[in-house]
Design a protein that fits this description.
This protein has about 250 residues and is mainly alpha-helical. About 60% of the residues lie in helices and about 5% in strands.
């Protein structure tokens, strides 16, 4: 295992801390699809006992981020263990369908209220982008979308988004590996926020659709999903495709 993980301190929510650290590593690509994960090695890197690591891995398996690894047969032992789940084009398409619907509803409602997004959100995102810090970029991107959900004034939007939030994090992590995608992201966020502040819900929704479509197309390209012959890129190019996985 080559991923570098930070040591964390013991506390009552240790299992949740381990879960978050491992999920961040999976989302940013520090733990790659198909990579084996071993309790002992993770416990050593995180400076914790094996028990919270075991419990965190169980949660990650339940949530679909790790799965049983192929059996390894050695001279003296047979080991199965776990590995990071491969990325699936169809699943990501489905996540983006939900995200697209929620985001466009949220910006229209936020625009009706002429809401203003906290400038700190943009400052944090631009700083993360300049540093090339993928985890911080994911966190800032999610903070932007959360701010819009809350500005919409309908708590069920954010609650609905949280149901698949962690899978969106992983999709964002893959998308943000592309320089071409992440360079304009905060300009697009600023344009969406400006349209919301002016009360122009249709413009905000249109920019949001283009923004989401770019991410969906970038993921389609990286996962090898075939593109449609013409038409604007977007989640439609991931929909209805044959189930695919990264090698």
């Amino acid at each position: 295992m080559t991923a570098l993980l930070h040591r964390i301190e013991t506390s009552p929510d240790l299992v949740e801390q381990v879960y978050r650290v491992l999920l961040d590593a999976i989302s940013t690509g520090a733990l790659q699809p198909g990579q084996r994960v071993m309790q002992e090695e993770l416990a050593d890197q995180l400076a914790v006992s094996r028990q919270p690591v075991m419990q965190a891995l169980r949660l990650l398996k339940k949530d679909g981020f790790v799965l049983d690894a192929p059996l390894l047969t050695g001279a003296t032992q047979r080991t199965r263990g776990l590995q990071v789940s491969p990325l699936d084009a169809q699943q990501i398409a489905q996540v983006y369908e939900v995200r697209e619907a929620l985001d466009q509803l949220a910006v229209r409602l936020a625009a009706a209220r002429r809401a203003h997004i906290d400038p700190t959100v943009f400052a944090n995102g631009q700083a993360a982008q300049e540093r090339g810090d993928v985890k911080a970029m994911i966190d800032a991107d999610m903070a932007f979308h959360t701010a819009i959900y809350r500005a919409a004034g309908n708590p069920f939007i954010e609650q609905s988004a949280q149901l698949h939030w962690n899978h969106i994090r992983r999709a964002m992590g893959l998308a943000l590996q592309s320089d071409d995608l992440r360079k304009p992201v905060w300009d697009e966020h600023q344009a969406i926020a400006a349209a919301i502040a002016k009360g122009d819900g249709e413009r905000a929704a249109r920019i949001m659709a283009e923004h989401t479509g770019k991410a969906a197309q970038a993921l389609a390209d990286q996962l090898g999903a075939p593109a449609d012959g013409g038409g604007a890129p977007g989640t439609d190019q991931l929909r209805g495709r044959r189930r695919q996985q990264l090698p």
